[in-house]
Amino acid sequence: MTQPETVEAVDVCVERILQRCGAALRVATPLGLGKPNGLLNALYRHAQRESNFSLTLFTALSLTRPAAGEGLQARFLKPFLSRHFGDDYVDPAYAVDMRRGRLPGNVRVHEFYLQSGAYLQADGVQRDYISQNYTHVARDLVKRDINLIVQLVAVRKSGDGVRISLGSNPDVTLDLLDRLEAAGLPRPMLVAVEHPDMPFTGGGAEVSASMFDVLLREAAPQPRLFALPREPVDDTEYAIGLHASGLVRDGGTLQIGIGSLSDALVHALTLRQRENARYRAMHEALDPHGAHHALAQELGGLAPFSFGLYGASEMVMDGFMHLHRAGILGRRTYDDMALEQAVADGRIASPLPAHAAETLYATGVLPETVDAKQMARLKRFGLLPEEAALRTDEIACPDGRRLPCRLDSAQARAAWSAMLEGRALRDGRYLRGAFFLGSHDFYTWLRELDGEDWSGLDMTRVSDVNQLYGGRERLDALQRRDARFFNICMMATPLGAVVSDALEDGRVVSGVGGQYNFVAMAHALDDGRSALMLRSTRTAHGRVHSNIRWNYGHTTIPRHLRDLVITEYGVADLRGRSDEDCVRAMLAISDARFVDGLVAEAQDAGKLPGDFRVPDAWRANTPEHLRAALQPFHADGLLPTFPLGSDFTEVEQRLLPALGWLRDHAEGWGRRLRLLAALLAPGKAVAGETEALQRMGFGPVRGIGERLQRRLLRTALRRGGRDSVSGTE
């Protein structure tokens, strides 16, 4: 096997690239974690120095650390950022300059998915953004004359050199190379950059080392992998997660994204499994009239999981780790149509029972005659021992058994049944993903997977995960039975259109990514459903706004693909419903403060009759009712602020609500006046106040500015969470 040239210095790697590719680089590099920031920064610095050199970068999700800011925010964030990312972490320099509008004229960066909200004011980024489905990226890159691909990888030693895994991002690289070859275009230069902490994932992610021209293995210690800080979950998000969890069917398939809404869903599924009585009580508290209970019974269920779930998700994140640990993510799928069908029909299970050969033969899993090809297949799935050997007309097993190669007699099948009884099926997948991103704990879990747990995770190309095309549609559909695709959106209309990626003036918040893929797949699968989750309101500039808008000037998911929409107030089932039914269903899960205005707009548009009156139950859709419903479960400790673990210390977790209280009261004159009143009468000291002030670096007070900051923080610690301010627009 040909091995790539190994170099140990970034500068040497840049030299090799320039020798091969010349003065015009057109670079493709993975989204998120798969970027080799050090190498990209070296290429970017070269472009800054050499005006006759051009660098065009095609990528997505260029991750940068949060800015520490100023004042109290800086006092909180600087120590946290240092601890979480490490002082030696290297941001992609081009991304920092993109945000500031400082890219040189000889550098262009085209991203198809942006770090959410980071570039709303960056005109250059907005102009160079490319809107595409995740599955179309490789197709479109073929026309861009890519001459360099760089990727962060995991490396293991092997007898004849090294083994390489694409680690976090097999998503687009493999598809792009296949498409370039099919188009008869030159193969770009491929550079792998080893990171010692990158998990070595298998399945489609493990590739031949000969795929790469150069392997950069730096001798110096590497910065930590970028890890997302885990987010707190509030009552709104918990309610959405609880509603969503009831739509998941035991034995089905799960796709989820990232963020606090997904964390809430994962925690709710875990409660369904481990605290089922209290979990059901939460549903009753949120839905006392049973309006959504029937839908949960029809589409999912509230009982614990017996068969477990299979994960098929473009993104693999912390939530899947927690579901696997809870025994929920455990349904295994097999890349063999006959075997998968037999398992799906419940005709066989692992470990295999007595007389298994009869069923396996009847379902086509066992062939009529075992030849060399069939023998390799049976070994792969654990239906023959690895050491078994094929003879002229029989199979020699390591325990001395002799099995007939022909299975067309009852006697032959009886001999096979004796061998098969108690054997476990092998090479089943419990999770398929195209890229991963998460916490440091998650990366540790991935690195420590072994045996069937390691092989059961298949990191593979995005075209295998996000769609049903490619020649194995029947098998994909069978494996993804009872699929539930959960994605997050920003706004929705009562007619079922959804806004997820951009504002109505065209500015991009994030990107479409794979959301459209999963919505379309839900409609393509007979038993699949798409569920889009959103908070019913948002607060901006001191005022509360509805996220259910009668109309909006941008759409991500069109209304003809409407399916399930979830807010904290319930689930709207829109599939196949009339416009009037959709409007009623959406208004039933809207915030009560906005429902009258939405009704009036619907009546003006002729979508509701003129004599329509708002049902009393809808008037209860308020934050106050939500808090009251969930309060007993907070008291029981079932709804923690950080359900999937926290990267913050206990003191920092006490500071977060206080800093949030200050942020909320800094917007709007009414809130600022209440903040001033609170400063004048902050209230009594609270437990942990001294430790919190110390964590924020407040020792002996120096100067008026520091005195004011300390007083603001002390007031927030004492008042945070007690005051509620509401206003609507």
UniProtKB/TrEMBL annotation:
Protein name from the UniProt record: Acetyl-CoA hydrolase
Keyword field: Hydrolase
Biological process GO annotation list? acetate metabolic process
User: Lineage, please?
Assistant: Bacteria, Pseudomonadati, Pseudomonadota, Gammaproteobacteria, Lysobacterales
Can you give the residue ranges of the Acetyl-CoA hydrolase/transferase C-terminal domain? Answer: 438-602
Q: Which GO terms describe its molecular function?
A: acetate CoA-transferase activity; hydrolase activity
* Organism of this sequence: Oleiagrimonas soli
A Pfam family name for this chain? AcetylCoA_hyd_C
Against InterPro entries, the record matches this protein to: AcetylCoA_hyd_C, AcetylCoA_hyd_C_sf, ActCoA_hydro, NagB/RpiA_transferase-like
